[in-house]
């Protein structure tokens, strides 16, 4: 049966929750007295509708309905999930929670988006504390999976279990924080980093942009896929986590940060960390972890390259310096490359779609040689492929060194037909392709003859 | 002319530098008295040869040579770049730097991999301090682009400029740290986070695994592409960075971390941050930044999904719950999805290779309906595509809702031929494809007839 969520307080966080539920097929009741609430929600929804469905290689459920409610009662009365995202003041939270509980079902989950308050603080004046817990999301809520689920001793085990299930069902990851603490877990790190960042700026060491580059070109990429401890486990090498701590432990007493309230590194603490790390990552050898880390980094950095953003721009720039300059010829070596890890599929070999991409890139290689470069595209012309046929002759795997030789079969006005042969470095033919392209105007998106130096360069093939 | 680097001290860091240089075509001289040096370097090189070339869609230069040197003199005499990665003790660093400078060219760059020492400390006993600077890398050095380049007032401007150029030429990002400080920039954040992490473990709040999940399912993904301040600029919304600080500033005085040495949030400091943020990100509106962030997140999370790791596993699991169960039929709706942002190319539309992937996924959709699921693959059988022809009829763009209807044209023993029609939700036909597949054994990688329930399910089409 379709479930219902009540969103109490819109804004970026409440709106993100709303979008997450609605796009997963839940009906949503919104209660927010702010006259701007609808506009704010629509902005978040627009972003969420653009982004969230793109994560999946299948369609999401049909969207649920959104009901703008005039009263708290109307919003929460039938709700399975009630998410409170009102301002971070305990008196406001208490008032809102009391009003919610005056009208909601006893079996409903009441999650609070609070960044800082402990669940026991939220429950202070409640007669049904068992249904209240912290469910702290991360912006953008419609994309990032993490929810810190923090119960107090008064939160009911049944409510907690059902909350986790419901979060998982809308694609979220409930991280059960077993012991309540100010700011939960993630925001403690964010706050420590924020404090250090303020010092660095105040002391004139670095600007906001330099700090961001120091993060996103380095450890940010590591953390996106492994976090802190698994990364350091690898740094410790075969000697293990205790060795890593022994090596970097002394830094705790050095002024490597202005935040100096450090715990004592007792043998007990070292052992606790090493044991937890074994439990977490011990199933893999360090070599395996290195390979997992590297493959993740390659795939993520290639994704950023495709977007032309962050570390991806650096790779693009560097790549440009490596692309060979070639004069046009009837047969040209149009590709020479390594097959990356993100091109394989469940059969353990390069997906057939990636053969199509190799031949598309090969065509780009030929076109570059005749002058179809960034400037030509910026001038409003390009080639679109109209028909491609591929014969798959041998399997190709990640790490294979492959080349493509391309031959002009037809060049006549706007028509261009290329034949490609894809080979391994040892000469084994992996696939052949025939590709028929038309020269187009990027403005009208219609075909037209090539212009300028491209037209001249192509004359030798007609 | 081929350049030469001298790597002083192997291990994971020195080995990473070595691999970065060699794979970019530099010759490398290695000096490391450790009898295990060659083995350690080979392990890093193996990882680097696997991963680094995969970042690029073109071939890297031919590898340079690696020379294992018996003396420091042999290693550094002709080197353009000398990278010191010996243990973190100042007396050792001083001794090694003196020996390097006794034999190296005056115009060579001497970079130190030190995590903590300031360049002025390294230069203390040097007669040519101008050629010495900190060049602090991040593990894995062969993949992560960040190098913190820290000169002292004694470091020569010419040496510094040439150092940055050479780092850029091997795909690195030199972050010029303008004011020397213990631990430079990035490690100050790492150290703050490490200290907070130790407290959380010591206090029994979270385990190493819980902490890693709190990072990699949340802010780690944000930081990999934007870092700290640009992310918070978005959180501040149209009201801007000063608003964000006003909103979260009070937390500085709350116990949100155990690291309490906080700077005072004066008006001057707030203005400095807001101004720097404007200079960094002011060219984009908040809406644009949100879209950039979301597209980066989608692309990176899809990359992790393809790897089946980190946040990608969560998406995969959630996706499974959304894939429709269908009975096999002669014509089947085999795909219904949104075109993601990572599928577009320089023409601003879906790359032809991704049409190939859609039809590959469509075939998977049909095959799933006849019982070719994870278990069937695990049992050692699958289908490989032998030939595909695609007609591209209309352009397709990121965000388009597309469907594919697939029809069985031939099912005969091991042979299976499907015809696909890809349409927009409004019915416009975007492309058609014909796809000829063979049933194979995943052990022998040779064709063979389908088995079990798949053979039975296919009988209705023969």
Kindly provide the radius of gyration of chain A, computed on alpha-carbon positions and rounded to a whole number of angstroms.
Answer: 28 Å
| Biggest interface, chains and residue tallies | A-B, 177 and 176 residues
Poorly predicted parts of chain A: none
Helix content of chain A: 40-55%
CATH superfamily of the largest domain in chain A: NAD(P)-binding Rossmann-like Domain
Q: Strand percentage of chain A, roughly? A: 15-25%
**Quaternary status of these chains?**
homodimer
CATH architecture type of the largest domain in chain A: 3-Layer(aba) Sandwich
DSSP helical segment count of chain A = 16
Q: Which strands sit side by side, in order, in the main sheet of chain A?
A: 3-2-1-4-5-6-7-8
CATH topology assignment of the largest domain in chain A: Rossmann fold
Q: Class of the largest domain in chain A, according to the CATH hierarchy?
A: Alpha Beta
Count up the domains of chain A.
3
Alpha-carbon distance between the termini of chain A?
65 Å
Mean pLDDT of chain A: 93
Largest sheet: number of strands, sense, barrel closure of chain A: 8 strands, mixed
Structural class of chain A, by secondary structure, is: alpha/beta
Overview of the structural elements:
The structure is a homodimer of 462-residue chains. Chain A is α/β, with parallel strands linked by helices. The first copy, chain A, has 3 domains: 4-176, NAD(P)-binding Rossmann-like Domain (Rossmann fold), CATH 3.40.50; 201-290, no CATH class; 323-461, Hotdog Thioesterase (Thiol Ester Dehydrase, Chain A, Roll). Chain A is 41% helix and 20% strand. In chain A, the strands form 2 sheets. An 8-stranded mixed β-sheet of chain A has the order 3-2-1-4-5-6-7-8, with helices on both faces. The first copy, chain A, has a 5-stranded antiparallel β-sheet with strand order 9-11-12-13-10. The first copy, chain A, is globular and about 85 Å long. The N and C termini of chain A lie far apart (65 Å). The mean pLDDT of chain A is 93. Chains A and B meet through helix 2, helix 7, helix 8, helix 9 and helix 11 of A and helix 2, helix 7, helix 8, helix 9 and helix 11 of B. Strand 10 of chain A pairs antiparallel with strand 10 of chain B.
């Amino acid at each position: 049966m379709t479930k219902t969520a009540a969103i109490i307080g819109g804004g970026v966080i409440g709106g993100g929750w709303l979008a997450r539920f609605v796009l997963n097929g839940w009906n949503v009741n919104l209660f927010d007295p702010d006259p701007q609430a609808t506009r704010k929600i629509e902005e978040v929804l627009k972003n969420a509708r653009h982004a969230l469905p793109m994560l999946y290689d299948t369609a999401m459920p049909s969207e649920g309905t959104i009901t703008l409610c005039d009263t708290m009662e109307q919003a929460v009365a039938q709700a399975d999930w009630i998410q409170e995202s009102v301002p971070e003041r305990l008196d406001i939270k208490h008032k809102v929670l009391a009003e919610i509980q005056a009208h909601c079902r006893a079996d409903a989950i009441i999650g609070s988006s609070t960044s800082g308050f402990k669940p026991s603080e939220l429950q202070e004046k409640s007669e049904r504390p068992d249904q209240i817990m912290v469910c702290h999301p991360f912006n953008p809520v419609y994309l990032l999976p993490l929810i810190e689920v923090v119960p107090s001793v008064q939160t009911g085990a049944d409510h907690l279990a059902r909350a986790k299930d419901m979060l998982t069902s809308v694609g979220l990851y409930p991280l059960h924080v077993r012991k309540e603490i100010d700011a939960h877990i993630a925001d403690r790190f964010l706050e420590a980093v924020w404090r250090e960042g303020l010092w660095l700026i105040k002391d004139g060491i670095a600007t906001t942009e330099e700090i961001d580059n120091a993060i996103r070109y380095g450890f940010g990429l590591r953390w996106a896929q492994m976090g802190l401890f698994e990364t350091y486990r690898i740094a410790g090498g075969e000697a293990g986590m205790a060795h890593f701590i022994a090596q970097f432990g002394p830094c705790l007493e050095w002024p490597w940060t202005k935040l100096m309230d450090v715990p004592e590194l007792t043998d007990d603490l070292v052992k606790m960390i090493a044991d937890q790390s074994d439990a977490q990552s011990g199933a893999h050898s360090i070599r395996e972890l290195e390979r997992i880390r590297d493959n993740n980094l390659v795939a993520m950095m290639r994704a950023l390259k495709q977007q032309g953003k962050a570390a991806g721009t650096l790779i693009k720039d560097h790549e440009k310096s490596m692309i060979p300059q070639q004069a046009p010829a009837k047969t040209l070596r149009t590709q020479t490359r390594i097959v990356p890890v993100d091109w394989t599929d469940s059969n353990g070999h390069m997906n057939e779609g990636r053969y199509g991409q190799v031949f598309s890139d090969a065509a780009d290689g030929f076109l570059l040689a005749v002058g179809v470069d960034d400037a030509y595209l910026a001038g409003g012309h390009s080639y679109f492929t109209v028909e491609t046929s591929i014969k798959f002759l041998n399997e190709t795997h990640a790490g294979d060194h492959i080349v493509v030789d391309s031959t002009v079969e037809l060049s006549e006005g706007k028509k261009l037909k290329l034949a490609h042969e894809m080979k391994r470095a040892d000469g084994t033919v992996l696939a052949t392709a025939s590709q028929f392209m038309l020269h187009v105007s990027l403005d009208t998106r219609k075909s037209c003859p090539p212009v300028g130096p491209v037209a001249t360069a192509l004359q030798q093939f007609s």
